[in-house]
Specification:
- By secondary structure, the chain is α/β, with parallel strands linked by helices.
- The protein contains three helices and three strands; from the N terminus they run βαβαβα.
- The chain has a three-stranded parallel beta sheet with strand order 2-1-3, with helices on both faces.
- Helix 2 packs parallel to helix 3.
- The chain is globular and about 30 Å long.
- 18% of the residues are buried.
């Protein structure tokens, strides 16, 4: 079975790590970014089955990143 790959973009590190830990315990592969720019770079370099985005991200907010992802998927 192919492992589901998730992009997690959350600027609050404790929240991001808690989510990452829970998701990896459920056998998901998780890449984490702490701002919208890093999230965009990860998205451009990898293929994801799901993106979990915080809205209030520094530099590129979650809405902008979601629009970019939808346009380039």
């Amino acid at each position: 079975m192919t492992q589901i790959k998730i992009l997690l973009v959350e600027d609050e590190r404790k929240i991001a790590e808690s989510l990452r830990k829970g998701l990896t315990e459920q056998q998901y592969e998780v890449d984490t970014a702490y701002d919208g720019v890093a999230g965009k770079k990860l998205f451009m370099a990898n293929t994801y089955d799901l993106a979990i985005l915080d809205i209030n991200l520094p530099v590129v907010n979650g809405y902008e990143l979601a629009r970019y992802i939808r346009k380039h998927q």
